[in-house]
Batch of 2 targets.
Target 1
Amino acid sequence: MSEIVISCGGRPIIYATYRTIVDRGEKVIYATPSWNNNHYTHFLEGEHVVLETKVENDFMPTAAELKPLLKGATLLALCSPQNPTGTTFAKKQLEEICDMVLEENKSRSADEKPLYVLFDQMYWVLTFGDTQHYNPVSLRPAMKDYTIFIDGMSKAFAGTGVRVGWALGPKHVMSKMKSILSHVGAGAPWPSRKLPPNTWFRKRMLINTLLTSKAKWKNAS
Ligand SMILES: Cc1ncc(COP(=O)(O)O)c(C=O)c1O
């Protein structure tokens, strides 16, 4: 439990991650287009390090593009599947980024902050067809020390109004996030916490059925 934070949706969790990790003037690396990293960096008065992604990389950042930007950065914000593009990291693409982050952190001295990765996987259950979702820690277990997962019910279970989101990450980061969130009234609403999980799994099955029948209809026409 000390590596989990539950709050009222993804937004407070993202805000708390930024607030915990980024001090004023510190570098935040994020891709464009991406969802709202510009606003969170602005709130924190961080330095925006913006990487313009390319169509040939499915609008996802690559290790080669990120590498020259890493010096002094404290947060790398990644999102897969990505909003607004709907594209995902290929396995190799994400493996290369993880290796690069691990190498960067190995090169930092004990009094330097490590480079953390905010990994927003809000849409991960909504991949379709042959597309597979990958995450940094499954690919490279050593990434556990540096990855903050952002997840929730809003997209996966078509429950934006339910307002339940969660983060997984290193204990010392989660503990600070909890302290911040307890002062911004961002606990998940009691009725949402009590909803029977069944309701949501049934909804997920409905979404799958809808997508599958849509695909069948498309193939037939
Ligand atoms: C990529 C991404 N992460 C997080 C969120 C925030 O989700 P929530 O509605 O749970 O605050 C959104 C909402 O659109 C999103 O697109």
Note: The chain has a mean pLDDT of 90.
Target 2
Amino acid sequence: MTAEPVLNAARPENERAELLRWMKTELHAEYGDRHLDPRREPMHELISTILSQRTTWQDEAAAYDELCEIGDWDAIIAAPTEAVAHAIRRSNYPESKAPRIQETLRRIRDSPGGYNLEFLRDMPSKDALKWLTDLPGVGVKTASLVLLFNYAHPVFPVDTHVHRITTRVGAIPLMGEQAAHRALLKVLPEDPPFLYELHLNLLRHGQQVCQWSRPKCGVCVLRERCDAFALFGDKVPSFSETKTKGKGTATRKRT
Ligand code: SF4
């Protein structure tokens, strides 16, 4: 007898690892190759990613550009915090991000390499993650992005899209984004090009198909193995609803 699909099932690790490999293959067929090339230099990646939290990429880019109009990193550290907050006002929560960015820059300036983060390349991934996440305003997603994108460390940034899709499909049980980092990393291969491509293709899939509310399951290449689709058909609830109600919501079967 085939077991009923259950949203947020706690699958064995080997099954979750296989499911993620299958997702990567399907998304590759849909969106193609992604070559692991740094998209911007490490300090730019770090500060931009802090600015990107709860912010669209257009606003993030505008905030970064205006921040740089203050001057170099030293000038940003020396500027009044209100001026920094004003420069990054298109990013959400500028008043809390401004002092954190200044303190992060100060600590990096005072580190042995100064603003050159190249030393992170040869550090063990665990230590490099710790070094970055000890900086104010730098969470595990930001640190993972810098380490994977710029230094090809085998880490996996979990943003809202990655979190939502892997939860709906059933690659991880329902949990917060922080915990999802650990859960996914445990079952993903230590293969930076694989991790990079999977991250970028999940991001694209989340923007175009598996959206927060009303995901377009009818055109989704992950549909055949997606727990949420198996349970809810083309009426997959918004992700807020899944997060609020958790396990108990999974009652409807595929029609
Ligand atoms: S089938 Fe629907 S819920 Fe599942 S991954 Fe695709 S779009 Fe998302």
Note: Residues 165, 168-169, 209-210, 215-217, 220, 222-223, 226, 228-229, 236 surround iron/sulfur cluster (CB under 6 Å).
